[in-house]
Amino acid sequence: MRPEVVAAMMPVFTEHFGNASSIHWFGQHAKSLIDDARQHVAKLINAEAGEIVFLSGGTEADNLAIRGIAESQKSKGRHIISSQIEHHAVLHTCKDLEKQGFEITWLPVSRDGLVNPENVRGAIRKDTILISIMHANNEIGTIQPIAEIGRIAAEADIYFHSDGVQSTGKIPVNVKDLGIDLYSMSAHKIHGPKGVGALFVKKATTLKPIMTGGGHERNRRSGTENVAGIVGFGEAARLARLELMQEMLRVRELRDRLEAGLKSQIEFIHVNGENAPRLPNTSNIMVDYAEGEGLVISLDLKGVAVSTGSACSSGSLEPSHVLTAIGKTPDEAHGSLRFSLSTMTASEDIDFVVEVLPGIVARLRELSPYYKGNSGSDH
């Protein structure tokens, strides 16, 4: 978290501890803090304060958007359109709905990870009730043509949800221009606290709550508000809006320097999604003839935290669904590293990675029988 965010949150833990739903002074003061935060989050995406629903993070926001529309619209139809490279919060939610009798069309993506808007148009049916396409991908950073898809959804009068967890605060977001009805966000992606997020719900959107209780957040999300978390999110959103453009230009330069530096020193490496519009802070680099887990562990020992294109679940190593969707083999997917930069990344951090990674790759390639057979060729 940014120090300013921590500073904004601290008084909520100690002085302003009231329940925002109570009518006494302590409660009303907590409510006013939430109202201020709601304004800041709304301004970041050019929404109105009343269109922001606070909840526990991006996963809950995706669930509320997708399940909320599915429940409210199921009498009209049970068909949903999504893409093959969505975050698990969307992917698994849609797969769960499939088990409940909904039909999902999973749109393919190009080799650079982009959805073709015409494929969206072609997938629309009479019983389509929702289109859910992420704004920017969490692994390779590619930015989808959301405004075009928004126009197609509006023409067909179909609700349009976009998972904006990765894009909020990294690129300009204007929900009006994008033509979306629902947009998911998460505080910790913009140096806010973990465990708090928001869902933009456009006015007049019919959404069935997925949690019942005391009717908090205008009956959209029951549960005593996480005032400290919400205040932190508000401050993070305020800072992101003030500094977004100049900071992300700097971060993009650092990312480009990282990619150019590694390409100049390591043979047989590729940047996934390189030819598509990308987030300024995300770089997914595929290193041939080097095992991803080995790269992650070796970098970790040097104090560099990166992730691989694979997710280890219950002992089985599955290749990334995003990288296989853009045409990578399981082996290639296992050799991909995701670097995430931020406003706190310094040029020295980039220099350090460019200095240490070539040696790590060389060591791991020594162990690869495939590399020895190919190192003399042009590949």
Features:
4-stranded antiparallel beta sheet; 7-stranded mixed beta sheet; Aspartate Aminotransferase, domain 1; single chain; alpha/beta; Aspartate Aminotransferase, domain 2; globular; 2 domains
Task: Explain how this protein is built.
- By secondary structure, the protein is an alpha/beta fold.
- The protein is globular and about 70 Å long.
- It has 14 helices and 13 strands.
- Helix 1 packs antiparallel against helix 9, helix 2 (about 25-45) runs parallel beside helix 9 (about 225-265) and helix 3 (about 60-75) runs parallel beside helix 4 (about 90-100).
- The protein has 2 domains: about 5-240, Aspartate Aminotransferase, domain 2, CATH 3.40.640; about 245-370, Aspartate Aminotransferase, domain 1 (Alpha-Beta Complex), CATH 3.90.1150.
- About 45% of the residues lie in helices and about 15% in strands.
- It has a 7-stranded mixed sheet, sandwiched between helices. The protein has a 4-stranded antiparallel sheet with strand order 8-9-13-10. The chain has a two-stranded antiparallel sheet with strand order 11-12.
- The model is unreliable at about 310-315 (pLDDT under 50).
